[in-house]
Design goal:
208 residues, alpha/beta, Rossmann fold, five-stranded mixed β-sheet, 5 strands, globular, binds S-adenosylmethionine, SAM-dependent_MTases_sf, S-adenosyl-L-methionine, methyltransferase, S-adenosylmethionine-dependent methyltransferase activity
Length: 208
């Protein structure tokens, strides 16, 4: 992982006593995330197999929730998303209108809790832009929310390999790729991801 992206994926420092003493307002919460696995490859890192693998976990800072945060950091417990917290996120996130439509359709579907949050998708899109990524891989598309966010952030010449085993999920995803005008950037692989990735390697895609 490049140092820049490593820094972007680090948990935030908790509010400090010094900041409190200065009367500085400490923003919270910063991120509330399920998880996502996306790999980015940029021109500067084409010689490496993958530039970055980001695994994001829930992180929320609050003086009252110190013990719960500590437990979450150790992976024992995840903090819940309250309705006011989710409203706060939605009102502060940049969301493409087609992403919004997809989120609304997904909300009515079984397994909708698997979708990444709009804030998480925005972070993934930002990482694509910071890295100048040209090639990305997503393992686990579901209905396509994070892959659509990544594809929208990629340049016209960029490509995303999107791996998913569930055909019904892919039907929804492909509809929204078309609607957003980014279908040409996405190579959908309907299979077990390990098989799709192995076949990429067999086709000479190693280190690309
Ligand atoms: C947490 S969801 C992904 C959420 C998605 N990134 C989004 O933004 O909505 C995980 C997805 O991975 C898929 N999946 C699980 N194991 C898989 C495998 N071995 N190969 C391909 N897809 C897999 C599941 O069908 C499910 O749709």
């Amino acid at each position: 992982m490049s140092p820049r992206l490593a820094a972007a994926a680090l948990p935030l420092p908790p509010p400090t006593a010094a900041a409190a003493a200065r009367g500085v307002a400490v923003p919270r919460p910063r991120t509330v995330l399920p998880w996502a696995s996306v790999a980015f490859s940029s021109p500067s890192s084409c010689r490496g197999a993958l530039a970055c693998l980001v695994r994001l976990r829930c992180s929320c800072h609050s003086a009252a929730a110190g013990a719960a945060v500590e437990e979450a950091r150790r992976g024992r417990k995840q903090l819940g998303m309250t309705p006011p917290l989710y409203d706060y996120l939605l009102s502060n996130v940049r969301e493409h209108p087609v992403l919004r439509e997809l989120r609304e359709e997904t909300a009515a579907m079984r397994g909708s809790q698997m979708q990444v949050s709009p804030a998480q998708a925005q972070l993934l899109a930002m990482l694509v832009q910071i890295q100048g990524a040209q090639r990305c891989i997503e393992v686990g598309v579901f209905t396509g929310y994070s892959s659509l966010a990544v594809a929208l952030a990629l340049p016209e010449s960029g490509r995303l390999v999107a791996c998913e085993r569930d055909e019904r999920c892919l039907e929804v995803a492909k509809k929204y790729y078309q609607r957003a005008g980014v279908a040409h950037k996405i190579d959908v692989k309907h299979a077990l991801a390990a098989d799709s990735l192995r076949s990429l390697l067999n086709c000479g895609e190693a280190s690309r």
